[in-house]
Amino acid sequence: MEYHHLLLFIKELERLKNNTRTAWTSTGRQESIAEHSWRLAMFCMALEPHVQDIDMSRVLRMSLIHDLGEAYEGDVSATIAEDPALKLHKEEDALRRLIAPLPESLQQTVMDLWREYTEGNTREAKLVKALDKIETIVQHNQGDNPPDFDYSFNLGYGKPLAAFDPVLQAIRDIVDGETVVHMNRNRT
């Protein structure tokens, strides 16, 4: 492998540091896609002792690549209705563009992990999908959000994804309780 191709890929990843999500940090700054993916990977790692029959290496890699398809057009809020098939197609095209400098075997590895995540059929993909939503809600609860922020949306956001595992369900219940506290504070 020519290392300059690897560096092209690494440099292109900066887009994920610059593209923001519709979540705010506790200081009122919009969170980047890269920050979300990093904290999702840390969330997965921290849960390793509590989940059974999981290939943590695949989970961590999946959590790091799950939003690479947002490198060019950015994140689209879940509150915005978008055709899921079109969104998936755009993300796949962007992902292929982003990983193009990598060797073919590594491109295939990334695409396989991304497809596994998007299909959500394996325990690893289910874990990452559930924690992706939970991490987002944690950030919403932790963030310095605009006054009109809709906390009630989060109570249903991805909730069924946590139901496959009792540990994830318990975590989701705690996070939902925190969301209700924020909703009640905003009403007063």
Automatic annotation (TrEMBL):
Entry keywords, A to Z: Hydrolase, Metal-binding
* Catalytic EC class: hydrolase
Which SMART domains does the UniProt entry name for this protein? Answer: HDc (SM00471)
Catalysis performed (reactions): a 2'-deoxyribonucleoside 5'-phosphate + H2O = a 2'-deoxyribonucleoside + phosphate
The HD/PDEase domain covers 29-146
Q: Which GO molecular function entries does the Swiss-Prot or TrEMBL record give?
A: 5'-deoxynucleotidase activity; metal ion binding
Q: Which domain of life is it from?
A: Bacteria
Task: Name any GO cellular component annotation.
Answer: cytoplasm
Please give one Pfam family short name.
HD_3
State the InterPro entries in the record.
HD/PDEase_dom (IPR003607), HD_domain (IPR006674), YfbR/HDDC2 (IPR039356)
Tell me its EC number(s), please. Answer: 3.1.3.89
Cofactors, names only: Co(2+); Mn(2+)
Q: Does the keyword Metal-binding apply?
A: yes
The UniProt subunit note reads as follows: Homodimer.
Full protein name: 5'-deoxynucleotidase
What does the record give as the organism's lineage? Answer: Bacteria, Bacillati, Bacillota, Bacilli, Bacillales
